[in-house]
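ok trying again, last paste got cut off:
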Amino acid sequence: MIQQPVPYQLCNRCVMDTSDPGIYFDENGNCNHCTEFLNKRANYSYKGLESDLALEKIVRVIKDNGVGKAYDCIVGLSGGVDSSYTAWKAKEMGLRVLGVHLDNGWNSIEANQNIRNIASKLNIDYECVVLDWQEFKQIQAAFLRASIPEADTPTDIAILAILHKMASKHGVKYILSGGNFATEGILPKHWHYNAKDLRYFKHICSNFGPVKLRSFPTFGFVKEAYYKIFKGIRMIYFLNYLSFDKTESISLLKEKLDWKEYGGKHYESKYTRFIQSYYLYNKFNIDYRRATLSSQICAGTVRREDALEALKNKPYSENRVSIEMKYIAKKLDFSEEKFNALLMDKPYWYTRYPNDEKRLNWIYNWYRKLFKKEKLASF
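nice, full thing came through this time. structure:
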C-alpha cells in the first residue's frame, strides 16, 4: 500500500508543523506538542515564591547530603548557556560543585574558553573525560550511515554515563542538569529518539560499522536503574525552579564570567551545530529551531510572529557550512564524495530499526509510579 503524503499543516499556537510525522492537531488547529507543554507547564514552570521555597528546600537537602563529602553536586559543563548558568546559580546558592565535561573531540573554541572561565572564576573543581577518538568516530560514522536523525545520540549517551559515573565515584547523590522545560519542553521523538535505548544503539553500531565497543561509556535502563535505585543518584532540573530568561542569563554570564557566544542552541559543539543546522534541515526537513521556538512561545518568552519571521531564514550559513562539511568529512575519515553521498541517502526514522521503545515505556512508567511518593521524586 502506497502511503499518501500528509498535507502540510502549521500549528495555530506554536510553530511546530508536519515536518514531525508524529504531530496531530485538535479541532482548533493546535498541535499535540504545545497542548502537552501547556498541560505540563503548571507542574514545571516557575511559580514565584512557591518555586523559590521549593528550590531552597532542594538546596538544603543537597547540602545536608553532602556533609562529609568533597562535593554537594555534579554539574555537567558544555560551555553552553544552560549548563553555565546552572553552575553559576549553584555556586551562588552555596553548593560545592564539581564541574564535569565530556570531551568528544568537537568542542568549539568558545566552548572550551567558557568552561575554563567557569571553573576558574567560580573557583570550582573540574574534571574532563576524553573519549577514545578512534572508537568514537567509528560510532558517529555508523549513525550517519544508518541515515537517521539521531546522528548526535552517541554524545548524549556518553554524557549521561559519565555524569552518573562521576557522581558514584565521589559519593554525590545529585546531578544538576541544565535541561529545562522553558526552552526544551518540546522535542518530537521522531526528531530525537530515546538516547537510552541500547538495543537501538547497538544495532546501529553492529550493522553500520561494524563497531566493536571497547571503552565507550554506554547508558541503558540497567545502568540507570543501578545508579538511581541502588546508588540513590538523582538528576535535578535546576532551571525549572528559576525564572530563567535566556537573554538575561547570557548578559549575566558575559559580565561575570567573560562568557563567549557560539551561535545557536547546542552550537558549542561543531558537530552538533552541523547536524542540527544543516544535516537535519536538508535531509529530514527538520528545522530544530521550531522545537526551541515553540517551547519559548508556550513559555511566553517569544512571540509567535517573531518566531515565524526567524524561521524564514535558513538555520545555517552557506559559506560556513561548506567549510564545516570538509572539516567533518576529513575528521571522520570520509572522502568528500562519500560524505556528500551519505548526506543525500534516503532518510529513515528510528522505527525502521530494532528498538526497545515499548519495553522502555513500560519500565519508565513503572519507575515513575514506584517513586511517585518519594521525597525527591518531583525533581
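cool. The chain is about 50% helix and 5% strand. The beta strands are 73-76, 97-103, 125-130, 174-177, 234-237.
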